[in-house]
Amino acid sequence: MKMFASYLFFLTLVLTSLKFSNSASIPCGVSILDNSTNTDFHHRIHNGTEARPYQWPWLAYIDLKLPATLRRTVTSRCTGTIVSPHYILTAAHCLQGIKDTQKQKVIVGSVDITSSEAKSVGVKRIVFHKQWDLQTISNDIGLIELSDSLNYTDSIREVCLSRKIVAEDHLSAQVVSIGWGLTERGKEPNILQQGSAIIAEPALCRNEYQQYNVTQQGDSGGPVLFRSSESKSWFELGILSYGSKDSERWDVYARVSHYCDWIAENSNNEVQCQT
């Protein structure tokens, strides 16, 4: 896992490219909006801003139907990331307790999950890391295999994953955190929320490691994104696992680069990290 201090901002956007319809022709981590310019700062997603249409086309809303006995302890509202036409990457704690995949669904294709443009896709299979541990919050990573293949468009695309782009090499860099978590008024939003974060030294969080909350308010499983200065593509560095009890201070993410082999193995080698 990697620890990140959370200091959020909203992003101004510029239209940069034309529409695509063929999944094979669309590179990962590129939207039709350029999200590189920031003009203001906010604290965490629940004090952030609403995402604009087409801004983050790899984001997925995970709507889970859990057994009544689990509903009080396990989240039924999470965020995930499209990593291939058949797979969504998310947190393990979002998936625990699920028995019947036929009752589950994932919503893609719109920042507004109530929009007519939002596409609901069924779930074929879920898998989370065999060494996922709720007590230590270790190996908090999971995959959802979709029942139908996604057709990539302006509003549905995949994020990039990398073995080499790691947080340790970009300390103090700004990254973007995204999800359908609670707003600052404690409301469950229908529209995707966004904000920025600063990659922090682990020592800044280590003393507070035991004072965490497992995030169960919609942001769980969502990505922290880093934009490559070379390719201009967005890479998912981490998967939101939990945050400090002082929610303005820091969040902790499962480090994606550490799990590239696991992701490939559990997606039948469909999802590959760049090398």
UniProtKB/TrEMBL annotation:
Gene Ontology molecular function: any one: serine-type endopeptidase activity
InterPro entries membership: Peptidase_S1_PA (IPR009003), Peptidase_S1_PA_chymotrypsin (IPR043504), Peptidase_S1A (IPR001314), Ser/Thr_Proteases_Immune/Dev (IPR051487), Trypsin_dom (IPR001254), TRYPSIN_HIS (IPR018114)
One of the GO BP terms on file: proteolysis
Signal peptide extent: 1-23
The keyword Disulfide bond appears for this protein: yes
Classification via SUPFAM superfamilies: Trypsin-like serine proteases
Keywords on record: Disulfide bond, Signal
Limits of the Peptidase S1 domain: 45-268
Entries under SMART domains matching the protein: Tryp_SPc
PROSITE patterns, per database record: TRYPSIN_DOM, TRYPSIN_HIS
Domain of life: Eukaryota
Membership in a protein family: Belongs to the peptidase S1 family. CLIP subfamily.
Protein's name according to its UniProt entry: Trypsin domain-containing protein
Organism field: Ditylenchus destructor
